[in-house]
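Final report, Chapter 2: Outcomes

The project's central promise was a pipeline that accepts a single protein chain and returns its three-dimensional structure in a standardized token representation, suitable for archiving and comparison. That pipeline is now operational. To close this chapter, we reproduce one record exactly as it appears in the project archive, with the input sequence first and the structure output second.
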Amino acid sequence: MKVYGANKSDIIGAMKSGNVTIAVYGLGKMGLPLAAVFADCGARVIGADVSPEVVASINRGECHVVGEPGLAGLVAKNTAAGRLSATSDLVNAAKQADVMVILVPTFLDADNNPDMSIVESVCRNIAQGLDKGDLVIQESTVPPRTTHDIILPLLEGSGLSCGEFGVAHCPERTSSGRAIEDIRGAYPKVVGGIDESSTQAAAAIYSVINSKGVIPVTDATTAEAVKVFEGLYRDVNIALANELAVVCDEIGISAIETFDVANTQPYSHIHKPGCGVGGHCIPVYPYFITKTVKSDTRLLTLAREINDGMAGYTVELVRRGGGEVGVELKDANVLVLGVTYRGDVKETRCSPGLSIIDILKGECRVVFAYDPLFGDDVRQFGAEPRRLDDVGDIDAVVIAADYEEFREIEWGELRLRHRVLVDGRNVAEGDKFIGDGFVYKGIG
């Protein structure tokens, strides 16, 4: 059923009865969960991906995405039921679909300019299969005005004009490790179209899968800005927390205690400080504004500088801690715990742990690393692998990711050569180390 211009009840009924075909472009950590949820709600779903291996695994009913509770079961169930299939023929997927959803990565180039090349490539493929009444939904996070200035003109390369098909931006609001929960309604779905019919059609589609409902906004640009601004708020707030944590260290008070008490006021929302900000979202989104607008964006730029600088500050804490036990950093063996950007998620993009390792490689004697999800593969990041039961020659430990495993470490039982602990994620309880002979340096 063609959904653009149709009424809400007809779209919902067609979705649930399998009379709407949705092509989801990009079957990665966010795209595959979305495709599986759409299929589980009754739609016929074609997953489109350039990887033959990914396509083959899904068509076998297998899930290549790990660490997503419930996803493997959804993929197996809906593949067996004939509601979910995959293809590497991006044009043919568009020809078969009534709705095309784009959920592919957006990157930065070497100069931190937004790189929309993957989104643009997908749009060119969709244009070759676009038909009247189709709806194209863009979920990838992009700079505001991308839908109007880039995506729409590419789709009009089909020979159709705006008004003959619909386009909406409906930003993904999901996190690794809880994608199914988020898609199904941890937060309302934001939808903004290039016209009212696009917004209404997109709202009807997402109302089927999201229990928290839909928030229609004025247009696609507003929807784009909503997602980007969510990330910018967090980046700036974390930068404030990090700067204040450094101040608290200087004046001899606990930043964590201070922030927690300050946040008992409803207008105070100071975030947690730490050794840096990683992932594919928060460190990237500021450049979607600073590199695309002419307005003064000094605050966003400064926040990035502060957060990027926390890796260096963490290494400085290692240097100070070593000094207190009579070990210079150049002579120290340092063990970094965690190479991922956050605990229990196998993702290293913009990881503070990797930045810390890079700095230490030029400062300490040997840098070692342990990550529960990488094991000996930490060598690819320039560190020697080392487990916690073999630390007799380690002079300092740095916690760079908040793994649950690290919260359970019995620090008093570790036979370190020198007991220096730098806690970049506030995982350990600093007070308990005073009696254990540790030099404890926390960020906060």
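Archive annotation: The first strand starts at residue 21 and ends at 25.
This record, like all others produced under the grant, will remain available to the consortium after the project formally closes.
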